[in-house]
Amino acid sequence: MALDPSRTPVLVGIGQSIEREAITTAVELAARAAEAALEDAPGLREKIQRLSLVAVSFSPVSLTPATEIVDALGLGDIAREATTPGGNSPQWLVNRACEQIVAGELETTIIVGAEATRSMRLCDPDRDFLQAATQDRSEEAGPQDVVIGKSIRGMYSAAELEANLIRPSDVYPVFESALSAKLGHSIEESRNRIAAFYSRGTEVAVKNPFAWFSKVQSAAEIAEVTAVNRITAEPYTRCMNSFPNVDQGTALILTTLAIAQAAGLADQCIFPWSGANNGDLVPSERTDLGDTPALRAAAVATFKAAGVGLDDIDFIDLYSCFPVAVEISAAAIGLALDDSRGLTQTGFMSFFGGPGNNYNAHGIAAVALRLRESGRLGYATGNGGVLSKHSIGIFGNEPPSQPFVLADTSKEQEAIAASAIEVTLEASGDAKVDGGTVVYGRDGTPTAAPVIATLTDGRRVVAAANSEMLPDLVGRSLVGETVRVTGAHPPTYSI
């Protein structure tokens, strides 16, 4: 099929920013990245029709950060908007913009995102990350940027909220326990498995000028429990967690091939070939805690829409907030953890940095920059919530054989919604553990041991351990074991 250059989307401008010393803001970092993208795509400043901002969750901003960035850039009276929270947002915005360009509804847009969490922490060390990220500001008075996007469902069920299983650093280890049980791995074996492929991420990070850390670490160093590399929640050490305490920004400029050619930028065009979006249930409602059918469906649909397979992909960046997200994403496309192509182009969020909702934009940028140099195709994934929202894209340094396709995953989404398991807030009886973890405080002592388990009647329950049980649970996986659950708000369990 012949492509219409006026309706063929291309990624033509890429900019990134980082601040390691001075106090800065998310707006300033986003504007710096945007200026770099505009310098990368000269002649397009006057063509920008819209600025889309990835939601700033951790860093304090006004109700109009997108407008402030537009003003700082001097872009005039263009459309400006901001997304709802979600680490899938950058790729979701790319997918949306590509659809609009193909439809003739948009010509040139800039997507920006940033977090100034390091600066915020220096100025306000007691600020709570989770509270900041989940704050509802919709009722605040005054003008606001247009907000786009929505959560498919809330991140957590009432049962998870009551059991305080709400911090991603606690929930992802629960998913990891389920995956490790399927693999037949103990907690120690899981830690070593993760450390093996995470160590390769450090080798990538040291080559990335926008990475926060620039030190190669061995698998043994990542797995070893020390005062600095403490256990956060089994099996994860600190080095296996996303590192959000960074000041980083990104900007991506998308336009039509016709406009890029007219500006003399054809040689640096990266072509979005296909994309997909999909969402999953809250954790306790999922059939398999060690997998996400929403991610799998989105991945399969993206490859099918592009008409290519995994062997055709040269560069890969998998969303890496926590190791299990990488593992499940790799499994969804049949990618081995030790694949010679690697799993990241940035260095993973533990070593590159995890700037809130905006990491995926850095992943897209890194893939695109690699494609400018060599190869043919790249693959990038974004994940929002707790493996809840998924957006995926395939990019090429050559035009696709057909216009960009946003794959339809509505049937898969319906099937996922229909598979929801009933979750109860009170229970009495035996339950088989589907996933669980032991959570540790900063002093290295266990503080909680939540589990998600299935009662004999098929209902799910989220239960907490009595504090006196915690020492006996250290280093022990309960997945597959039967526990006794009693009570409500939240239920507790005994073994």
Layout of secondary structure:
Elements: E1 9-18, H1 26-40, E2 50-53, H2 65-73, E3 79-83, H3 89-102, E4 109-116, H4 117-123, H5 129-134, E5 146-148, H6 158-162, H7 168-183, H8 187-205, H9 219-223, E6 231-233, E7 236-237, E8 247-256, H10 257-262, E9 271-279, H11 293-306, E10 315-317, H12 323-332, H13 359-373, E11 377-384, E12 389-396, E13 405-406, H14 410-418, E14 423-424, E15 426-436, E16 439-440, E17 446-448, E18 451-455, E19 460-465, H15 470-473, E20 482-488, E21 492-494
Parallel strand pairs: 2-3, 2-4, 3-5, 9-13, 10-11, 14-19, 19-21
Antiparallel strand pairs: 1-8, 4-8, 6-7, 9-12, 11-12, 15-18, 15-20, 16-17, 18-19, 20-21
Helix pairs in contact: 1-2, 7-12, 11-12
Q: Given the helix and strand composition, which structural class is it?
A: alpha/beta
Oligomer: single chain
Number of domains as seen in the coordinates: 2
Q: Distance N terminus to C terminus? A: 63 Å
Number of helices: 15
CATH architecture descriptor text of the largest domain:
3-Layer(aba) Sandwich
CATH class of the largest domain: Alpha Beta
Which value, in Å, is the CA radius of gyration?
A: 22 Å
The low-confidence parts are none
Q: Which range best describes the helical content: under 10%, 10-25%, 25-40%, 40-55%, 55-70% or over 70%?
A: 25-40%
Strand order of the largest sheet: 1-8-4-2-3-5
Main beta-sheet annotation: 6 strands, mixed
